[in-house]
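Record Probable membrane transporter protein, 252 aa.
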Amino acid sequence: MELTIQTFLIVCPLVFLAGLVDSIAGGGGLISLPAYLLAGVPMHNAIATNKLSSATGTAISTARLCKNKFVDWGVALPCISMALVGSFAGAHIALLASDKILKWMLIPVLPIVAFYVMKKKNLDDNSNVEISRKKQWILCAVCSLAVGCYDGFYGPGTGTFLLILYTGVAKLPVAKASGTMKLANLSSNIMALVVFLFSGKIVIYLGLAASVFSIAGHYVGSGMVMKNGNKIVRPIILIVLVLLFIKIITGM
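=>
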């Protein structure tokens, strides 16, 4: 496709905003993917190029959260490996199948998830819940496999789903869940990126330019997570879920 100044002016600022949101609670793809489409990038190229910019940005926020000890390394390795396997499968399915079935499956799921987040006023309220380390390990691995497959196949809201599952199902503290979620999300992003790279669908120059803005957004957003923690994560999750529901219903 032919790239113009207007293409970059539409994509880059919105990718910065997407990186900011994504580093806090996931769901940046709800902003960045429509940005590519708005700039006239064809659908398959938009999905592939979006993986490039989101993966580079996610790498920065992940590194920052790891450096500041916002990762539960005891469950991080199985999360990474399962996210890679799931994303590999999902990305290959995405090249062959329509995403309409998965979209319709999400319609009843999203309101339930949003209700859960609204009802659970504090995502970090796991101090009185007893769960064995082995069970926590298994639950995180299974959740990462499922959501990794979703990320490779469709994508928007991946980080949000991981964060909700890690805190709600595996009972990780929200601070540790944020960093661990980023590692799993980065892994699934990279695997899907490799698959799309070999398919030749990535618009390289646009993706590299957008990556710079994605990195900036993720850097700022990860700093906000470290300072405000649960106070900022919960409202952002609700916003992401509402946007994803609207996106699916309207067929954007």
